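for the recovery benchmark. C-alpha cells below, seq after
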C-alpha cells in the first residue's frame, strides 16, 4: 500500500514524485523512487538518469544534511529550481525565476508582432496574434503564481503588455484582470467537482465565495490570494 505522504504525478513521458518528509524520515520517499525504477525496468521503460533531478523545499533554520538520492546506481543531482509542465518552481517558493523566464520568452515574440505591424496587418489580427502567441505565455499557470508575485515582478510583466499596446495601438487587458477572471473561473470549477483534491477547501466558504462583495481593492485581492494558495 502506498504511503499517503507520497504522491506520484504523471504527464506524458514525465513523472514526478512528491513527498512530505516528517521527523527526517525519508524511507517512504526513497522506497517509492526505488519501486518506480524497478517498475520501469520490468516494463521495458528506460529512465533518463541525466534528466532526473531532486529539489528539496525546507524552511527550517537548521537544515540537516541529507543523503544524496540514487537512482539506478547514479546520484541524482540536487537543484534549486525545477521546471514542471512549463512552470519553473524554485526551492524558496518564489516566482522571480519563472517570471523572468516567461518575460524573456514573451519579449522575443514581440519582435514578430512588430514585424506584422510593419506589414500593415489589421489591428484585429494583431490583437489575435498577441492573445495567442504572447498573452498565452504571460498567463501560463497564472492562477498559481500571480497572487504571490512581487510588485517588481508584476511591473516586468506589465511592461511587456505596454510594449505590445504601443505596437498594436490600442489598450490590452491588464494581467491583474486576466488573473482575477481565470482565478474565479478555476475556483468555480473546483466547487462543482467533488473529486477535485482542493474541493474540501472551498466547502466551508462556498456561500461566501458565491456571495463575495467587497468595498476595497485590498479586501478583494486578499480573497483572491487565499484562493490562489488553495
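predicted aa per position
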Amino acid at each position: 500500500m502506498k504511503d499517503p505522504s507520497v504522491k506520484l504525478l504523471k504527464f506524458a513521458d514525465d513523472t514526478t514524485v512528491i513527498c512530505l518528509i516528517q521527523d527526517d524520515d525519508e524511507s517512504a520517499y526513497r522506497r517509492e523512487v526505488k519501486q518506480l525504477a524497478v517498475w520501469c525496468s520490468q516494463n521495458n521503460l528506460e529512465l533518463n538518469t541525466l534528466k532526473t533531478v531532486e529539489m528539496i523545499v525546507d524552511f527550517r533554520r537548521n537544515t540537516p544534511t541529507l543523503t544524496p538520492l540514487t537512482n539506478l546506481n547514479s546520484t541524482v543531482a540536487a537543484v534549486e529550481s525545477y521546471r514542471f509542465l512549463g512552470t519553473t518552481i524554485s526551492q524558496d517558493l518564489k516566482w522571480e525565476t519563472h517570471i523572468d523566464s516567461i518575460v524573456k520568452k514573451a519579449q522575443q515574440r514581440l519582435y514578430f508582432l512588430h514585424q506584422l505591424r510593419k506589414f500593415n496587418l489589421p489591428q484585429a489580427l494583431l490583437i489575435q496574434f498577441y492573445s495567442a502567441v504572447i498573452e498565452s505565455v504571460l498567463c501560463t499557470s497564472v492562477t498559481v503564481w500571480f497572487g504571490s508575485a512581487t510588485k517588481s515582478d508584476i511591473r516586468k510583466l506589465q511592461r511587456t503588455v505596454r510594449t505590445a499596446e504601443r505596437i498594436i495601438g490600442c489598450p490590452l487587458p491588464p494581467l491583474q484582470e486576466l488573473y482575477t477572471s481565470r482565478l474565479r473561473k478555476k475556483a468555480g470549477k473546483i466547487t462543482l467537482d467533488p473529486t477535485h483534491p482542493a474541493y474540501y477547501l472551498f466547502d466551508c466558504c462556498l456561500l461566501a465565495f458565491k456571495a463575495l462583495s467587497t468595498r476595497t481593492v485590498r479586501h478583494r485581492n486578499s480573497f483572491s490570494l487565499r484562493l490562489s494558495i488553495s
